[in-house]
Known about the structure:
single chain, alpha/beta, TIM Barrel, 8-stranded mixed sheet, 4-stranded parallel sheet, 13 helices, 17 strands, about 20% strand
Amino acid sequence: xxxxxxxxxRIVDGTAPEPTAPTQVLVEGDRVREVGTAIKxxxxxxDLRGRTLMPGLIDCHVHTIAVMADLGRNAMLPDSLVTAxxxxxxxxxxxxxxxxxxxxxxxxxxxxxxxxxxxxxxxxLVICGKALSQTGGHCDFRGRFxxxxxxxxxxSLGSLGRxxxxxxxxxxxxxxxxxxGAEFIKIMANGGCASPTDPIHFLGFSRDELAAIVExxxxxxxxxxxxxxxxxxxxxxxxxxxxxxEHCNLIKEDTxxxxxxxxxxxxxxxxxxxxxxxxxxxxxxPPESVAxxxxxxxxxxxxxxxxxxxxxxxxxxxDLLGDMHRHQSEEFVIRGRVLPAHDVIASATATAARxxxxxxxxxxxxxxxxxxxxxxxxxxxxDLSLLTAQGQHMPLIMKGGAFVKTTSLN
Length: 410
């Protein structure tokens, strides 16, 4: 990897409502080595005058192996086909400027290893393995008339989760996912749109089961992430010690304040409801699932405002499926209708890095951080849509000091 010196770099990382004054950023190998105004180096120089330099973006709620919108059918695909299609999903993400993504159900340690070995172009992967779901919960796609027992082992790559019931089973499931390379544990603690037998209001797992799962994560030095919509479900998970609160469309002010006080992080995913309502049926999302979308879609924007006022940190999430992955960046614009632009950007940089437990390594442009960098034509603090359009406004994208995309800056 060459040594590079970016000059006239106005940095936007979400920590301030305005870009920094022009500065210099020295990249050596896979790291940022120096940031300042008087760097002396013989490195190749890239002048960023008139452009913005940002840390690579982080999406904290993706399903990289969800190559079909119908998740039940997705689980029936052969692993080889899911892998091939997932490489295309991952390439699309990094070409939109997302240099790290947190997969919250599905991707396994083999896929993560393939990324790290450089077999294809991809963001960094943070994984939980398979999500844990109770019988009839958000990862149970058997339907009303399918009484076949849920498998206990041998899950296909296309499966988002696994079924476990009772304290002993949930402990074993959590331990198996951790043994298999999970960096955190994901649970389905509420009903969901994609699954056939659980209305949105359903509560997943007993309080004792939740406590057991949290304990297993604690013992492994990590945390639990939960799929949640209703205020009741969110509160009981916060009280049980769940750290990462996914979706949260129906959260109320008291619960948002409690979550903030307990140090939790929310991961809203507004874009997926918009796209499911518009495209879901045509892309194979089951009709009963499309009907559920409206139960949570309309409340999502109010939830953003509630969580912001409560001081509950929010990380960036998209939660898209199949061909809808291409809308990943539109979450920036949707949140920007309610939240300040720098807060929206911080959700995909500093806040996301903390949630991924990679603070200081990603989501920042600072000495010793990974050289995950994107160059943007213009100022995204003034126009968040510059972060959309499939990376059209990003002439340069770098991951770990290596260019993923290079376009002339002339």
